[in-house]
Amino acid sequence: MRATTVLRGPLAAALAALLGLLLLGAASEDPAGSVSGIDQARLPSPAREALPLISELTATNCPELPPLWVLAQVQAESGWDPTATSGDGDGAAAGLYQLSERNWLAAGGARWPSSPPGPDAQVTDAAAHLRVAIPWICANLRAVTGHLAATGKTTDPLDAMLVCHIAGCRRVIESATGVPREGEAGCGARCADLVRRYLDGVHGYLERFAAPVGPAEPAPDPGAPVDPYPGGSTGCTAPDPTGDGCLTGAARYGFETAAAVFGGWRDGPVIRSAGCWDEHAWNPRSDHPRGRACDLFPTEPGVFPEGEELANGWRLTEWFRGNAGPLRVKYLIWQGRYWDPSVSDQGGWGRRYTGGGVYDVRDATGGHYDHLHVSFAE
User: Can you list the domains of the chain with their CATH numbers?
Assistant: First the structure.
């Protein structure tokens, strides 16, 4: 990494406060890859060997950082050569993430014996580097996530993390979107081009290393096209068939139509169980307490579906996507992926689901692996 990402003084305090807002629940229910989403045959040998450690470090300390992103960013930085160095003196960088000595020390690493460091230094040891660097990367990810959530900037937090790494966190904070353009945040043409090429490079490796996402075969047509929702905006007034709450007219219609097409929702052949209205106190921006969302389970809650249950989940998901217009579907979340009518497929079905800082996306329920979330628009 060529830019410093050390956060100190007023900037650190501001970001800490913004992160606090996020942790209090100011995040929407909107999609991270897991180890199962990685095509290990495409990984360089050192990356494949490091994957168990990466998975352990991210799952334990930073579930919002997908192992796939670690693999791709390190590939862009060092090509998975742990002894790689660049520059000299104060501009030297070393190791898998190409950290400067200043950032390595701030992350808790040992002082370099020389600059650039040799192959026997801690920073150039692959396992030691990852144990120090991943928490450092995670701290930056959490800081920029809080900033983006508090300011309404639309940049993906993981992309902002990349900007923080290559150009400094102030570029995220002082730019309009979180990714600086020429003339923003002290970023000239060369800086803006560097950031753009870096993001493009990491995204290229994300696509290279990702396993295909989506149903193995096209979902069979479960029946004729559905009749469109005949009503208008109702508010949360219709009784929720799955509990004691309420649903909007569109949500009630979409849920009942799906149940009829797929053979019921209580131990049905496709939908094993379902839940719609819920207070969702941990995520006040969710559509559930507004009566606009339902969760449909093709398997037992807390279980990663396989075989026929996984296929049924894809059938259900593709059916809702195919009928998004008449059913007033706002968005879908399934198998660690997010889709709405404005989203093009990116590296598989829909795009990656981040969890919005609220959900553990490696958990069967948090990542929406055990259930399809359907939100309806009014």
Answer: 9-209 (1.10.530.10), 238-376 (no CATH)
